[in-house]
Amino acid sequence: PAAAMAPRPKAAHRLPTSPLSRADRGAAMGCMHATPAAAASEAVWQPSGKYKWERPAGSIHKMTIAVSDPAESAAWLIKYVGARDLPVPDPNLVARGIRWVVLPPFHPASAEFHFIPAGVDKDLGLRGGIDLNHDGVVSGDEMTDVNFMWLHKLVDSCDQDMKVWTVYLNTHCGVYCEDLTPIVTKLRDDGVPFFGPTLRGDGVVQLYVEVPHFFYCEIDSNVYNYEASGLPAPRPWNEMAPSLNTHG
What pTM does this model have? Predict the structure, then answer.
């Protein structure tokens, strides 16, 4: 008779993990090295050689984002996602206030986020606003500087602290983590709003967050223990998006 299969634990979703095989990781590590200073405290991976910068061919290795405060954005990812500071190798970029972080597990295929201060480059330079009181005129307190930060504050207010799915949430980056449970638990404990976790049809659990200030990020994992996080079991996205096909 066929052997009975043990049921999967009710509170966890587990599928084969690891974006790179063991052999691939070993090969990739050949083009990177840890700096002596970093070796003393959690190694930070940097390009090998003085002039040679390398990443696996064909990979989307980083996302560059204009934010209100690069230090705050970097600190958020370090605290909640386990990212590490990555030294910026160009003094001209450092002078602009740019910050880099790299995501775990810290091999050459690990994604990087590069944060640029929103106020250092040319903006619209316009004055305008929105008719908030619906009187047909934009005036008084409705007038403001129409710029990057103003536009993003409008987008931010639309999701109502990540309680409502909006058209703007459709534009996001996605990162993979080994276990979503500690991330959700930290966010919950600190009262940081998020959307989800949701359950995709193939069993992948997806969490949507807004990294300050302002961009959306999807964090995916094959492992999530909802009972340990103190939240209900993840449901499909379409069951959790009350704004679907609605306006206003």
Answer: 0.76
